[in-house]
Amino acid sequence: MKHLLTYCLALSALLMTSTTTAQTPACSKFPSLAAKTQADWCADIVSTAALGLRMPRTVLWMGRKEGVDELLVVDMGSWEPNRGRLLAVSVNTAQGTTTAKELLKGLDRPHGLRLGPDGRVYLGEASRISRFAKPGSDAVVLETVVSDLPMEGRHPLKEFVFSADKVLYINVGAATDRCDKKAGAADGMPTCPEMSAPKPQAAVYVARFDAQGKLSSPTPFATGLRNSMALAAHPSGSIFQAENNIDFPEESFPAEEINKLVAGGHYGWPGCVENRKPVPGFQAAACAKTQAPAALLPAHAAPLHMQYSQTAFVPGQAAQRSGLLVSFHGYRTSGQRLVRYDTQADGTPVGAPVELLYDPGPAKGTEAGKSARKPGGPVGWAEDDKGHLWIADDRNRWLVWLHRAR
């Protein structure tokens, strides 16, 4: 495929650090993250577990008032049900101070958080999508707008995105890694029993607003998608998904994928990975009938969030040149970083990625050879009106502020 990114190209670019620099000390009054950034950019830790963070996953920038940035943060708490919270976090970058307030608690494995086309905030839990008015002096009250979403098995989290034409796309992850029950081919296409249930998993669903602003019951839009934790909507109308692929033990197999979603498209799970390559024991003929990916990412990168940005993060980048930002959350060589891809007019990523934030992991030499912190784990982020990013790191229980040097 003409615009397919090979794994080797992507990985070699990820391992190159010549375009990055160790950030200068004292970028702000907050402590600096021991990581590499692009020249003239800083990464600072603005919130930690000391402020109550347990497992922050997603951030929404709500604005700035009198020099204070106001954020909403989804804190999943843990993988146990009903431990999640929604926090209001206020960051005074000039003074180097942060405060947090709990708005909701008892949420069931929350993850997705977006501003909807109706101006309300949308929140995704394991089995539902809810919305609420922007927080003010009143208590936050959830209104369920999509309910009874499948949440069985290994991938219960719900990410979602709104398209340019106000359609809601929702991740419904597979219950298993490789299909615990026997996989086969239905009508020549890869299938698994969990995909043929009344509410199939391993799919992306859609829900549409009616004239009164009510969302329709969600229906499957695309299938054969193991876990669509990263969804992005391009202004052109294109919808992209980053696939967290099957967990084979090999370091370099299988590559993760970025897929351009089309109605009725089948993207290969559980029998096909990478560029329609059959997994051991599966037939290549069935894979040939599935949709080819738009790009390949490094194996085990674990992409958990994607977002388009016109910010010039890279020296020499053309002004207003749109790029696709992707967080690589994986523990292995290719993970623990935030990268940027150039894009075509329809949002398709092209070329090799450039690292915006690369956290190589904790420093050595601590007591008994143990590290004082875990390797970086960027999940979701929000971009503010200055092009700065507010990034959730769920492993270290941090919020990281990626900003231009003063």
Task: Report the end-to-end length measured between terminal Cα atoms.
Answer: 43 Å
Number of domains: 1
Q: Write down the oligomeric state.
A: single chain
Proportion in β-strands: 35-45%
CATH topology: Neuraminidase
Across the major sheet, the strand order is 1-2-27-26-25-24
Uncertain ranges: 1-24, 363-371
Number of strands: 30
The largest sheet is: 6 strands, antiparallel
List the total number of helices. Answer: 2
**Rg, alpha carbons:** 20 Å
Category from helices, strands and their pairing: mainly beta
Shape: globular
Helix content: under 10%
Per CATH, the class reads: Mainly Beta
What would CATH call the homologous superfamily? TolB, C-terminal domain
Quote the average pLDDT. 88
The CATH level-2 architecture is identified as 6 Propeller
Structural write-up:
The N terminus is likely disordered. A hairpin with a 4-residue loop joins strand 9 and strand 10. The chain has a single domain, classed as Neuraminidase. With 406 residues, the chain is mainly β. 49% of the residues are buried. 3% of the residues lie in helices and 40% in strands.
Write the layout of secondary structure elements.
Elements: H1 7-14, E1 20-22, E2 36-38, E3 41-47, E4 56-65, E5 68-75, E6 84-92, E7 97-107, E8 113-115, E9 121-124, E10 129-132, E11 143-146, E12 160-162, E13 168-172, E14 184-186, E15 189-191, E16 203-207, E17 219-223, E18 230-233, E19 239-243, E20 255-260, E21 272-273, E22 277-278, H2 284-287, E23 295-299, E24 303-309, E25 323-328, E26 337-343, E27 349-358, E28 378-383, E29 389-393, E30 398-404
